Amino acid sequence: MLPTLMMQNVGLNYHSKTSETNAIDDITFCVNKGEFVGLVGPSGCGKTTLLSIISGILAPSRGQVLIEGKSTKDKNAVIGYMFQRDLLFPWRTIWQNVNLGAELKHNKNATQKATKLLKKYGIYDFKDKYPHELSGGMRQRVALIRTLVLNPQILLLDEPFGALDYQTRQNVIDDISGIIKNENTTSLLVTHDITEAICMCDKVIVLSNRPSRVKKVIDIQLDKTKPPSQRKTLTKFFEYQTQIWKELA
Q: What is the per-residue pLDDT across 141-191, written as a single tens digit (0 to 9) for each?
């Protein structure tokens, strides 16, 4: 079976009038179907830039990005993107926000899925409310459901919990992780939080300083029957934490 995402020798150079900067160099890794993969690295190493390349916002200078064996430029490629801010439109109800993609694509099946997901994850009773009437955690749940209704082949998450306070963040991490697991959504998470990456992900890719390269890929073997907030108490968690810190040092 083809990987959902394949990065093959991807590089990116930034150009100015007087110089050229090698930002990303020879990045190769894959994300298999149903995997939840974390991407960590030093600040400024290009983690978000990689998501921009995968989503097609930026074109790589070299190498290729394949989604299920096809170029990201393929018109049938469906890539979901979840940002740090929920980016819900304040003038649209929760129902209207969740169905925005379905409206744009005239996709009745997506509208049916929106109803199913809103009911499944406890949001349906709030469908006629506006974003400002919901808590930060519920807004993030809505943002995720909005992305999932179009059945993305891969979900990209860019620091999706960074804007939340600590206590809310722990609950939302459990919620979001549970939804992604239940829906078997292939996901790639960019985070600066090593604890978050270890507790949520099946494997963690450690990037080097710029020019960014893959330094290490670490398989995470923690008890997946426990929610992420409880996995950080497991003995193996501390082993992974130490290993990743050594790679980042």
A: 999 999 999 899 999 999 988 777 777 888 889 999 999 999 999 999 999
- The CATH code of the domain that includes 229 is 3.40.50.300
**Measured distance CA(11)–CA(90) in Å, rounded:** 38
Prior bond to 227 cis, omega within 30? no
This prediction has a pTM of 0.92
The residue ranges of DSSP E strands in the chain, in sequence order, are: 5-15, 20-31, 36-40, 62-67, 70-71, 79-82, 154-158, 187-190, 203-207, 214-219
| 125 Cβ neighbours under 8 A, 6+ residues apart | none
Query: For residue 206, what are the CA distances in angstroms to 99, 131, 174, 192, 249?
Result: 36, 35, 23, 11, 11
Count of structural domains within the chain: 1
Q: What is the DSSP pairing of strand 70-71 with strand 62-67?
A: antiparallel
111-126 per-position pLDDT tens digit: 889 999 999 999 999 9
Contact 99, 111 (CB under 8 A): yes
Q: Which domain holds residue 192?
A: 5-248
